[in-house]
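Subject: sequence -> structure tokens, single chain

Hey, anyone have a minute? Need the predicted structure for the following. Not urgent.
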Amino acid sequence: MLRLQQPLPERYSTATPDELTRMIGAAKAALGSRLFVLGHHYQRDDVMRWADARGDSFGLSRLAAEQTEAEFIVFCGVHFMAESADVLTGAHQKVLLPDLNAGCSMADMADIDQVEEAWEELSRVIDVERVVPVTYMNSSAALKSFVGRHQGAVCTSSNARAVLTWALQEGRGDQVLFFPDQHLGRNTGYQLGYGADDMRVWNPRLALGGLTDAEVKNSTLLLWKGHCSVHQRFRPEHVTAFREAHPGGIVMVHPECAHDVVEMGDLVGSTDALIRGVAAAPGGSVIGVATEIHLVKRLDDESPDKTVVCLDPLVCPCSTMSRIDGPHLAWVLEGLVQGDVRNQIQVDTETAEWARVALERMLAIT
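Reply:
Had a minute. Here:
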């Protein structure tokens, strides 16, 4: 998805770390309770230090909605997260994203035109009234709105099992169209007892998703061909190498990883589950984690009695999340001090209404 971020004035792009600290600190002090800064777990440390709260995307969006005194919510995350915050916050609040180019490659792998086209194609083969669309939180507000309008729901990595169980309960649906992350859908399907023959990958670039009529009709889970560019890097050989180097080590895996990696994990769970798992591990543990490097490093820094390492030796960061940096944060905050609201993220009223329905439906399920 194309987003245009204007180049920063030289004052910000050439500022030293100390100068940025003074700019950001002064702006936060000037704005006081009018401002609330959110930092996603994958955010770089030089930005996270300024966050008033840190967490996962949905948790931060809900927290933003609770900050009724705050006029400005600055979301140090990616675009879909800021959209969710705008959907959930009040009309008197403005949500800002420091860099408009901070998108999510997974979220961009499914856009509303593709999903609506897939729905139309499915309707020619099966009764879509018996198909429940489920979108992962890592998706645009337009896709959340789509599932809201079509009696579906949003899910997170921690409640995907509950949402899919709800979607496939008797009397509701016979099939699920799950997007945009095929791996979370597949791993959850296996958790629920479905086999490989019950799940098919829907490729939006091919007619009928690259499937035959029979494959569509006989599938319980239609999994969108999408993935996380970070989590798809982890391979079984990474786990094997870790276990050889650290006999007795603990392997923790995010469910956005491929199923063959998930099968090898001692603990599989959402970002928050991984954080809790590290905290609960015995002192002296060596823990290999299959998730984004900024979070892994922070877990290691904050667990002095344990060793926490990334299972990928190339330690790939979330490149789009890393677009949020000190210069962009300083530029947005100083703009607010000057009365200039920069990079406000706004979801139109109808889209926000149906997206809220899908999110509230998820909360009712879980």
